[in-house]
Give the backbone structure.
Amino acid sequence: MKVQTKPGTAPRIETKTGADLLVESLIKQKVDILFGYPGGAVLPIYDAIYRARESFTHILTRHEQGAIHAAEGYARVSGKPGVVIATSGPGATNLVTGIADAMIDSLPLVVFTGQVARGVIGTDAFQEADVMGITTPITKHNYQVQHVSDLPRIVREAFHIASTGRPGPVVVDIPKDISANPCEDEYDDNFHLPGYQPNIKPNPLQLKKLANALETAKRPVILAGAGVMFGSASEELRKFAEKHSLPVATTLLGLGSFPGAHPLALGMAGMHGTFTANRALYECDLLINIGARFDDRLTGNLEHFAPKATVAHIDIDPAEIGKNVTTHIPVVSDSKAALQSLFYHAEFTSDHDDWLQHLSDYQKENPLWYKNPAKEMVPQWLIEAVHNITNGNAIVTTDVGQHQMWAAQYYAFEEPDRWVTSGGLGTMGFGFPAAIGAQLAKPEETVIAFVGDGGFQMTLQELSVLQERQLPVKVIIVNNGALGMVRQWQETFYEERYSESLLQIQPDFVKLADSYGIQGYRIDTQEEFIDLLPEVFSYNGPVVLDCRVLRQENVYPMIAPGKGLHQMIGVKP
Amino acid sequence: MRRIITATVQNRSGVLNRITGLLQKRQFNIESISVGRTETESISKMTLVVEVEDNQKLEQLTKQLNKQIDVLKVTDITDKAIVARELALIKVVSAGQLRNELQGIIEPFRASIIDVSKDSLSIQVTGKPEKIEALIELLRPYGIKELARTGMTAFLRGHQPQSAELPSYSLLNR
């Protein structure tokens, strides 16, 4: 209980509820946007939010999955934790995909779920689900609040854990009686986490080893992952690469960590990466991985991954080092701190003219390619056209599949934190709600959601949010009437048996947009697209473009499953 | 290879679930796990006996355990000088005339009879897992009706010999 004195009034006793403490804590964490969906077990919380409505914008998505993907998009471009609220039971379980997605892609989220009252937990009460049990394996940490007075400390811990070290999602499960009841005890939010001390300063001995390896290397290459951007180290990466003439390949999630048009940029590596980036990883004698986790879609068959290389790995998460690839020089560190120290440890400069020339020859001989009939919409051409009109500076979100790979290949990002995609989990339905979150984080920027016709239909109910908030997101449906990547694999590996991958029946996306009061266009030819684009991008409101692209187009080049980086197919037309 | 891992953890609800869930998710085989309070309030100690393929997997195991917020310290004590004990309760079929014979068998193991009924008796034995195994084998011909084992609990001896003194001492991997 706290005694409050207002000037001119008698002192009165004011008792705060758990929900009040939660709202207070959120304000203290400088949270300004909440993504959520109300329900029975969070009614006290929503009532407190109503009272504090001047402090927050609450985005009411039309499905909890939309809320959490929007929070992921918000977190990815703003660098701040995305905050989500959902009710108990189905509200919480609808978040599960997004929580797992944020976990594997290291996105900071703080997720509040309602829970049935403490007295009935474990009795299979109405809308009860074991949120702790369900989310333990897919969160960085999770809490169930047992005492009202613990709430302020738990909220502060949750934000600290979510946003420091390797970022990740934290779930706080709040029983309804905790949020509804007054807090009678003293409370404070001081915390002590002896089991959580993320190391951000690199070990100088390892950096010295890395500098020595760099000095003698003939064919060095950098692999830049999302960790470069989590550490805000893009500037340091560029200077380091330039100082030592190091070619840079990026992972899918690392796109933008190094300027796409830079002479040292090799593009994306991995299953659908460039020939040159993959050959560089295969032929190198020193591989410097900065903030990437050697995902299997990147490495291909591990037997053929960087077989001649000394491997150095800079990562803030020690468990990633040596997990998949044997590492000779482990550096547990924040990417920025490691790169800054490397300037000191590697004072020499290097040139690797022969190696760079070799890679440049590869680039000239084996560029990305597609056949352009110049009339019909070719998906790769579509991405390039959007890249050109936005000068490679838009914030781009995607779903998962062919259009995602084409966007990764052809939308060369010049700046960090502009690429929002579901990499590790590969979540269809991610791109559109993520664009909503990204646009809310950066209201002045152009935000484009490239979505497939399949993925868009998983979360398109969030068109309501575009309408309600008049967010100028440009939704570009790369419509090939199929689950394109599934169809491509069935064509390549299952003798063209297109089992359940062709979407014969679709809504009229233009009418659908119209029913939400959103401008929609159907585009069938390149000419129509070119004519329309200036209007689309000068209009300060939401637009849905149904782009009918060539249906038989496949993503190339490609490393088939089980093959090594040097065994790409579809390298040339 | 079998490894003995100890983990000092915050004594919070769900911590055992976090550990076993993690090991299951990463496909580690738990042979036994024992948990109990320590001299410090709010801190528990777990002893895990796990079967891992190689050193790389072992390193992953300890790193992943260390990543848990509620885990304070993880140590692989397999190759250290340690004290390791397990307790087993063994219920053996026994008519009256066999009791003396059984008493003779268990005596060298410093085991004791803790319950007697008309047609069975229960034996308690404490010691290294090998010793317990040996006693179980000796008792098996008499007919074991029920067997319960606690799993190993262990910690470091007060004095750790220098590596020169005891180059490859290992309880499990001799």
About this structure: Chain A has a mean pLDDT of 96.
